[in-house]
């Protein structure tokens, strides 16, 4: 069997789907569902402070007064492009031929290794939007935006150009004794409730989910105030704070479900990094629409798919896997590309606390 028959973009897509069929989805991907659109441009309507406003009283036989729309901003931008590939060289192909011709029991292992290389690219494509989403949901210093720089290209997107969201929806605990890293004096439950109240006052939606890292959750385990709250519910002489009873107490007292998000990725420099940073807490409302992950049409999909010049397949809504055979020297290029950017229509319903 020729390699171009064995190792097609369609086979790569099927292999990737099979290998990752039991994976737990990225949390950000579930909060920002994938959507497809044509081209590079992305625009969305962002409603601001969407509390309902009572109708004005009126007299009979008079014309209605017309109200202005509650602050609405149209945001437009151009989505960023990502592309990387693997090259299967003539020597690699000879190794596969040798293994097949000799009925080598390790032939399948050689082929699996090739698939693993490309699966790594597709997995890397999935990392890009997840990384973007958490830059929005846990913004450094409250600056809601996306900043990714590599390979001589910098993508910078500001989702809060007038700092209105930062002013109202972001809190940094600056008093040393109030930081969650000081268990004797910090009051995490009060901080969470205050942010709940703030978001509810602004939007009418009360957050009931708190997302944090493992290190931040450990502050709750060490907190004297959290321990006192649990003892008040269950007056036992000694109680060991565990993840289960702390989670249950926060749910009972505040109606908040705690989600500890620990998934990691490697940066372009190969540094292992958590999607969700330490020392932040993000409050959202379960079931609320925060935004969408939009995939544009890559050049490979737009100009090569179905044209006979290359073989192209689409994975996960908008990730293009392209295969091109070069005649001299004979090698096989496998390229993975995407155009992707999240919208963030529901940002006003999100609150973030920098706790330490």
Overview of the structural elements:
This protein has 356 residues and is of the alpha+beta class. It has one domain (3-47, 71-354): phage-related protein like domain (phage-related protein like fold, Alpha-Beta Complex), CATH 3.90.1690. It contains eleven helices and 17 strands. It has helices at residues 3-6, 9-19, 27-31, 90-101, 107-137, 164-169, 188-203, 214-222, 224-233, 243-254, 299-303; strands at 34-36, 41-47, 72-78, 81-88, 145-150, 153-158, 170-172, 209-212, 257-260, 264-266, 272-274, 280-284, 293-295, 311-315, 319-327, 330-342, 351-354. The strands form five sheets. Strands 1, 4, 13, 14, 15 and 16 form a six-stranded mixed beta sheet that branches. A five-stranded mixed beta sheet has the order 7-17-12-8-9. It has a two-stranded antiparallel sheet with strand order 2-3. α9 crosses α10 (243-254). It is globular and about 75 Å long. The model has no long low-confidence stretch (mean pLDDT 84).
Task: List unreliable stretches of 5+ residues.
Answer: none
Mean pLDDT value: 84
- Helix tally? 11
Encode the helix/strand succession as letters. Answer: HHHEEEEHHEEHEHEHHHEEEEEHEEEE
Largest sheet: 6 strands, mixed
Name the CATH architecture. Alpha-Beta Complex
Q: How helical, in percent, are the residues?
A: 25-40%
**Total E-strand runs:** 17
Rg calculated over all Cα atoms: 25 Å
Integer tally of domains: 1
CATH topology: phage-related protein like fold
Question: What is the first-to-last residue Cα distance?
Answer: 59 Å
Query: Judging from the principal axes of the Cα atoms, what is the shape?
Result: globular
